[in-house]
Each structure stands twice: as C-alpha cells, then as structure tokens.
C-alpha cells in the first residue's frame, strides 16, 4: 500500500485548543452557575457519543478504514450555548490521561522531555502535553509560554516537527498501544459525497483526545493487491484529534474566541514527488565524448510515525550511452550539503552488462545510479528541498538520436511495515536489486512505493547533432534545368571525407564541439552513417578518420554537439580530379522549430564547388559538393575564377615570352 494520506494540521488538538485547555489543574471543580458542563462518562440512552470527521479529496478517502484509541479524557468543562439552542462554544476544559495508556504516555513524555513530568501534572502526562505543547494561553501552572514553538508555529510543515510529534510517535510505538489498536474496532467511516471532496464520520466516541490510525488495505482502495496508486490509496500517519462535548442536548463543538471546530481532520495528499532536468544551457544538446549535467529535485517527505525510512532516487537511462562520473554528485537538503564520507548518503552506480566498450576506461555505460538518502532523511525538516546535481559522460555506446534519462523515487509508505536498522548507529539503507536498480521489497525494507519521471521527459532529453554531405558531378549539375533535376542527380560513390572540430576548446561549452588534434575519429553505424567516438585516443581499429559515402552517395556525420566543424574531401572517385578537393566549414545546431532535430549553415570552399547556405537548413538535406574532371570546369567566380585568371595571365606571359624568344632567334639569323 502506498503512503499518501497525511494531516497537515491537527484539528481540535494542535489547532483548536488555544483556549480549550485553559483551566485549573486536573481535579479542580467548577463553581455552580459558571457555565459548567456535565461531561458524559458513557455512551448510553439518548447520548450516542461524539464524532470525528475526516475530510479531503474523494480519491484519498473513499473506502478507507480507521481505528481509534483514546489517550486523553475530558474531566471538567465550561461552555456557552449559542442562540440556536442546539450548539455551543467551549470556553475551557481540563484534560486527563486515559488509564489504559497512562504508563506508556508517561514513558513517552519523559523520553521527549528528557526528565520526569512537572509536579502539578504527575500521573497526568497527557494533561501536561495538552497544557504545554498545544499552543494555548493561561496554562494551569501560570506559564503562558508554549514549550513546543515548532509544532505551533502556524506552519503546516512545522506541525509535524517538535515535541508533540515525538510524543505521538513514542506512544504509537509502545507495545501497549499496539495491543489496544489491535483489539480496537475497525471503523468503516460513513462517507458523505461532496463531488470531488468527501467527508467520513467516525461516531459513538466518548469525549476526549484520540489517536486515529488509518488501517486501509491496498485492496480496499484499488480492488486488487499490488496495484497501488500513490495519489489515491494508502495509509496515513497517526493523527491526534480532540472531540466536541455533548451536554444537556447541546453540542459544544467550537472553541471560544477562535471559532475553530472540534473533531474535524483535514487529510491531504502528500505523496513524495521527484523531477529531473538537464542544466538549462545544455538542453537538447549532446556530443559523444562530452558531458551532461543533471539535477534531481524533491523534498523531505513526512516521516512522522517512522523509526526508519527508505528514500532513494534512482537515475535510469532509457538506453546505453551514459556513464556516471564518479564523485561528481552534490547532495543538498535545504541549506545543508550532505557528506557521503560521513554516511549521510550512498551512491551506487551499476555498469550496463550489455555495453560494448567496457574495455575502454571510463566508457562503460551505466545501467542505473542509486542515490540513497535513507541514512539521514529523518534528520531534516518536512518539505525541505532536496537537490542532487551530478554529471554523466556520453559514451561510445550511444547510437545517436535523443538520450532519454528518467528517475524513479522510492520511499517508505506504511508506518506499520517499516524497514529495519541496517548499521550499528541505528540508521537504515535501501537494499537494491542489482538487475533493475529498484528498491527490493520484503524483509528488512518494509513497504515502499514510487513516483517516476519518464525518460522521455523533455526537460531531461539531450539530442545529438548531425548533418550529411553528397558529392555530385558538376557537369550534370550545371546541365540541370531546375532544382528538381539537380536533386535527382545520383551521388557519386567511393568518395571519402574527414571531419575536424574547429571551435577552440576555451570557447566550447561542455557537450559541444571542441578543438581536436586533427580529424575526429568515428565508428560506422551503417551504410554511409558514422558517429563520433568518445575515446578519440583509443587504439581501436574500428575507429576511423576517413569516412566513405554510402551506396546512395550520402555521408552522415552523427553524434556531434553544437558547434563549428571543418569538412575535408580526401578521396574522389576514379575519373574525377583530385587537384581541387574542397575544404569547408559547417555550423550545426538545434533546429529552430524542433530542438530535437538538427539544422546547419555552411560556407562554400575556395573553388566554389560547395553549395553554401547562409540561413539554416534542416540536416535532412545533404550539403552538395561538386566534382570536376578538369580545371576547365571550375566556376568563373570566387577563388576558382581568380585561379583561372591567373592561369590565363601565366599562359599569355609564357606565349609572349616564347614569341620574343623566337623573334630574337630569327633576327640573329
């Protein structure tokens, strides 16, 4: 079953006792005529008992079951009847300790205080808790200072910290309370359907302060075991609730000047959540051999009622190609940076068994990475932010396209089925299934549930860049009547190219193209399709620099990051001139309309044999490179035109020199 239903405030106890408990010490009598009420001692005759009403979203309450155990009694009370004659306002009440839990409450109070009960509350631990930790004034001992400022700060988050929380948890874990809870009647609360909201009423109770336990089974909510949805089913933590008092046919269910309602509990969804995103500067940009910086975000869950708690975030790539960089993580909870060396958390990376390049140091793909915060999660404040940042390098196992990377959060969800301590200091850690990275259930780990962020979440997707080239004969290109005919010209085979990164390393962002020593190495993915390799210095014979076009004459460079690249033609097919082979620059980037796709701009070469694009073009369109068979086919513009002009001048100079030489010889003769 999944842990999701939690009370954000304590209706009737933590919230509404501000004036309720402002009476003399237990045992003091009320004077006649001062509004004194007769507190019922039994459910009998026309008195049907008090009620506790639980309200919240229908999906969180429907079909839930509860047990209640009274820990505090009402002894003396004062009240005022409203004008309707049916309801009234409680002005004050004295609280005693229910005898069935007296010793356990005494032990719990002493453990929280670190000492014995105050003299005026000896034998009445619940009375002291009510008088000192529930935020009211005019206490019986004359001290108007609330001693549990955390629980009563007014913050919903703080309601579950402080002494009151510790007291409730200590009582809950006592053997006597477990026995009382076990023998208590299951209350299948009566629902009242209010559209998306629902209330459930537990009735027939004697006046007092109760601990309420949600004993809903998963099958009760989902209809089938093992199909829990953490947003719609599960158990709540122990709830502390004080009831109204019915006396003389009048229901005193409001508190003096505050107007708060007694016996009412708000249950809200508090299933822990997790999100994952890339560093904003790297979104949708990846380069094999580069790095990606990820951020996981969550918040400290409500651990009230737990002695041990499982809390793990598991990074799970959707495929091969990512390698966890050891010791790159930074784990922050609120403003505190955790220290793995001190046992605050544990990181467990798992190498993918089916990766291809485990023999290359640092290039084995990671199957999953577990960030286990279980040892320290209970030390922190409810809803404190949790932020984990870390680095993944992109390995040779990546095959182009988007790199999907999700996260799964596993957390304890049942206070009645908790993990056990796993080390000498009493803390716990998750047990991980080595084949899946999931937190295993069963002995030792208690019951856990999970929330996930899909690997296809756009915020965590990174995409490689790519572009293509095709070589075509210039004669056919020039003879074509229009672009349609030019596009129909088949690419030449046997052509090879080299690709180099030209962006200086000092200017390149992580994951983008950087300076390299000569041409980049690639590995062949398919016919005319190559991807950049991460291990540029590895002596792997499958890593090549000269890349050959495919059977269709097209060559695709893949696995690139955004940046500038230099393309150099190194081999032309037989019959074509290898004197004027182009070298040109290409800038590849994300497509403006769809960041998951690539686009490019490119310059022409010196000879104007490369089709230039000043505005971005989809990488699905190859860059056309023209091949010539003789110098006479060079264009008459740009560098080629200059070369031809120089050649003409040289030829004229040579012809003139020869004519002068011939004339001189003739003259001499």
Topology:
Elements: E1 3-7, E2 36-37, E3 50-57, H1 58-61, E4 66-81, E5 87-97, H2 102-113, H3 125-133, H4 162-172, H5 175-183, E6 190-194, E7 197-205, E8 208-214, H6 218-222, E9 235-236, E10 239-242, E11 245-247, E12 250-255, E13 264-269, E14 275-278, E15 291-299, E16 311-317, E17 322-324, E18 330-333, E19 336-337, E20 346-351, E21 366-372, E22 385-394, E23 402-403, E24 405-412, E25 448-453, E26 462-463, E27 465-473, H7 474-479, H8 483-488, E28 496-501, E29 522-526, E30 529-532, E31 543-544, E32 547-548, E33 554-560, E34 563-571, E35 583-590, E36 598-602, E37 613-618, E38 623-627, H9 638-668
Parallel strand pairs: 1-9, 3-13, 5-12, 27-38, 30-33
Antiparallel strand pairs: 1-13, 2-4, 3-7, 4-5, 4-8, 6-7, 8-10, 11-12, 14-15, 15-22, 16-21, 16-24, 17-22, 18-19, 18-22, 20-21, 23-26, 24-25, 27-33, 28-32, 28-34, 29-30, 29-31, 34-35, 35-36, 36-37
Helix pairs in contact: 2-4
